[in-house]
Write a structure and sequence with these properties.
406 residues, Rossmann fold, 2 domains, 6-stranded mixed β-sheet, 5-stranded parallel β-sheet, 16 helices
């Protein structure tokens, strides 16, 4: 029955086309195997289900996982038999590969002998790296990353919804706010507070839980390991290890500062961490859905940073996203670093920015000849110039910053 035939029936939103899908299909079409990493619930399994394939195995399922844990060579026998039956290399999908790191050696052998092509997904690089001599298939796979929805993929909705509920496909496509909240709470409880804690390998789970809450609250701030260690009551080296766990499990994005300068000797060298999704961040920080007006500016800055990071992964030039800060005063929220140019960006929670909002951009432009133009990303409906070298643009126009020469 169509929507027109029954307009009173509420239907779920259809599948959201992912920008990464044609990239993935092109790699498969070139007879390449693919390692697709991404946080939980970003749509990896859904994306795999859309691919024509010959064999699909999910290591999340206990029966499948236990079968291969007992004997990883079973995969070799099954794929070789499938190749013989088909008369060509089969395409094999293997979901959550980090569950059995040892199976990677079998996959390498099958790839090297042209017995099969693979699309492997994972939501934690930590388990693979931690296992002794884990084979990450260097040079044998195309490595891709699936993030929460990027700007070109997002359906139109109120900006404050993005700040409160984030961009996970399974949350964006839910109609009722109460259901979104429930699903986010379930995500944090079942994944962050259980599976991520197990990665911590600590006896005091309460300590790690407290760290997780503070890390979410401090998302987007320059990290002060000693301050956090004092608040939680553990060594600052332990806090650094906890952040590494979150990074390896793809829960946070580490952003390094831009530190090159001929004249400034005190540029900040400490990094920032951004939670990979603002909805997950809010729930992990135990914040309610009704956010106070005072936090929107900081959340908007984080949203712009996440948009830049996600789009940079998809850009042809693969620029690096950084920030810039001089403790003596000037700072720039985000810097897009290309090999031949820099683009400084200020994020402002306003629809009518003034030249005063761009004063630190002017400092940056004078300091770095490779930076020819700066941008204030805000809520203006249309771009306009604040000065000959500084332009205010709508936040929806961010993709243009990574695709055209500036």
């Amino acid at each position: 029955m169509t929507r027109a035939q029954n307009s009173s029936k509420i239907e779920p939103m259809s599948y959201i086309e992912r920008v990464l899908e044609p990239v993935l299909r092109r790699a498969i079409g070139r007879n390449k195997s693919v390692l697709l990493l991404g946080p939980r619930q970003t749509g990896k399994t859904t994306l795999l289900d859309r691919l024509p394939h010959d064999l699909s195995l999910s290591l999340v399922r206990a029966d499948v996982r236990q079968r291969f844990e007992k004997n990883v060579s079973l995969l070799q026998a099954e794929v070789e038999t499938l190749r013989e039956r088909l008369g060509r290399r089969p395409l094999v999908l293997l979901d959550e590969i980090q569950k059995i790191p040892a199976i990677m050696d079998v996959i390498q052998d099958l790839i090297d002998r042209h017995q099969g092509n693979f699309v492997l997904t994972g939501s934690s690089a930590r388990k693979m790296r931690r296992a002794p001599q884990t084979n990450l298939l260097p040079g044998r796979v195309v490595s891709l990353r699936l993030d929460p929805l990027t700007l070109p993929e997002l359906p139109k909705r109120h900006l404050r919804e993005r700040l409160a509920y984030g961009d996970l496909p399974g949350i964006v496509t839910v109609q009722a706010e109460s259901d979104r909240q429930q699903d986010l709470e379930s995500y944090v409880t079942t994944y962050l507070e259980e599976e991520i804690r197990m990665e911590a390998l600590v006896r005091n789970m309460g300590t790690f839980g407290r760290f997780l809450e503070l890390a979410a609250s401090e998302s987007g701030q320059i990290v002060n390991l000693r301050k956090l260690s004092q608040e939680i009551g553990v060594a600052h080296t332990t806090i650094a290890d906890y952040y590494q766990i979150l990074e390896d499990c793809l829960v946070v994005e580490r952003v390094e500062p831009y530190t090159q300068s001929r004249t400034r000797k005190k540029l900040t060298k400490s990094q920032k961490y951004l939670f990979f999704d603002l909805g997950v961040r809010r729930v992990a920080a135990h914040e309610g859905a009704l956010l106070p007006q005072s936090v929107f500016g900081h959340l908007f800055e984080q949203m712009i940073g996440l948009d830049l990071i996600r789009l940079a992964r998809l850009a042809v030039e693969h620029p690096i996203i950084r920030f810039w800060r001089d403790p003596d005063g000037p700072e720039v929220d985000w810097v897009i670093e290309f090999p031949d140019r820099l683009i400084p960006i200020e994020a402002k929670w306003t629809s009518a920015p003034a030249l005063q909002d761009a004063k630190h951009l002017n400092v940056f432009l004078k300091e770095y000849p490779k930076a020819r133009k700066g941008f204030v990303v805000c809520q203006t409906p249309r771009p306009f110039k604040l000065s000959p070298a500084i332009e205010a643009i709508p936040w929806q126009d961010i993709p243009n910053l990574l695709t055209r020469k500036i």
